[in-house]
Amino acid sequence: MFRRPRETVNLNPAEKSTIAGAASVAERVMCQLPAFRARLPWRTRLGFWFAPPRCYACGGAGDLGAIDLCAACLGRWPHRADAAAPPSLQGVVLHAAFDYREPVSTALRALKFQGDWRAARVLGTLLALRRLDRAAPHAAELPQCLVPIPLHPARLRERGFDQAALLARHIALWSAIPVRRWLRRTRSTTPQTELDGAARRLNVAGAFAATDAARSALARGDIRRIAILDDVVTTGSTAAAASAALRAAAGAHGRSLDVQCWAVAATAKSTTIPTKITSPT
Ligand SMILES: [Zn+2]
After folding, report:
1. How confident is the model at residue 2, as a pLDDT?
2. Closest to 168 in 3D by CA, of 186, 187, 150, 191
3. CA of 17 to the centre of ligand 1 (A)
4. Above 90 in pLDDT, residue 14?
5. What is the pLDDT of residues 193-219, one digit of tens each?
6. 235 and 268 in contact (C-beta within 8 Å)?
C-alpha cells in the first residue's frame, strides 16, 4: 500500500506543501496504474509475470506490479506538482514529471552516461504515466507524436546510445504515441551543463534541422501537435531551438505547429522560464 513520507516534522509550510503535492501525484499514479497496465501489449504484460519488476531505488520487490519502483519509493520521489499554467518558452509548453533532485538526478545520470536500461524504463514509464494522468490539467492535450532531441552523430558514436531515444521507447509503449526521429543536429555543441543561461542559448541556436521525413509529414498538415522529448530541462534553450527547426519546416508550407516539451525532470530555474528571449547579439 502507498505510504506517505514521514520525515515532515521539521519542515516549513512551503516544503510540506511540496511534499503533499508530490504524495498526491504518487497516489494518482498508483490508482491509475492498473488501467494503463491493462492496455499494454500482451507480450509486455507476460514479461512482468515471468520477470517481476524490482524497485530501482531500494532493490526491494516492485510491489506495483508494472513499474520498477515500490510504493514507498514512488511516494518519496520528487514529483512536480501540477501547474494550471505550465512554464513556456517561445510557445513551447514544458511538462516535466520530476524536480531535478535526488534520487531522480542520480537515475538520470545513470541513463545519460552509462545507458542504464533500468533507469530508462522507470523514468520513461513514469513520465508517460504523468502525461496520461487524467486528473492533471492539460491531460487532453496529448501530442500526435514524440520527437526525441537527437545527439550529434559524433557523440552518438562515442557514447553508443541515445538517452532520449531510450526514454522514448518506454513512453511510446505506455502511451501508444508514435516516436518520430524528425530532428538532426546540424553541428556539434558544447554540453549545456558546462554553460550558463546566455551561453546556452547561443550554443544551441540553429543547432537543429528538420529531417526530410519531417518536412514531408509537416507539409501534409495532418500533424498539428507534437512533443519534443528531452531528459532534463534547465533554461529551455534546447527545446526552443529544436522547436524552431520544426516550426520552420511547418511554416514553409503555411502550417502551424503546437509544440510541447516533455522532460523527465526540470531544474528549479525551469519554473521561471521567461515567455520570450531576446536574440543573442
Ligand atoms: Zn523501493
Report:
1. 45
2. 150
3. 23
4. no
5. 666 666 766 676 778 999 999 999 999
6. no
Å from CA of 139 to ligand 1 middle: 28
Contact 99, 269 (CB under 8 A): no
Q: How far is the CA of 42 from the centre of ligand 1 (A)?
A: 26
Q: How far is the CA of 14 from the centre of ligand 1 (A)?
A: 26
127-163 confidence digits (pLDDT tens): 999 998 877 767 668 999 999 999 888 888 888 889 9
Quote the ligand 1 centre to 56 CA distance (angstroms).
Answer: 7
| Residue 234 CA to ligand 1 centre (angstroms) | 28
- Please state the φ and ψ torsions of residue 198, each to the nearest 5 degrees: -65, -40
Residue 252 CA to residue 42 CA, distance in Å, equals 42
187 Cα to the center of ligand 1, angstroms? 41
CATH number attached to the domain at 80-271: 3.40.50
pLDDT tens for each residue of 65-122:
788 999 999 999 999 987 777 787 778 899 999 999 999 999 999 998 888 888 999 9
- Ligand 1 centroid–CA 27 distance in Å is 15
Tell me the domain boundaries of the chain: 80-271
**Ligand 1 center to residue 76 CA distance, Å?**
9
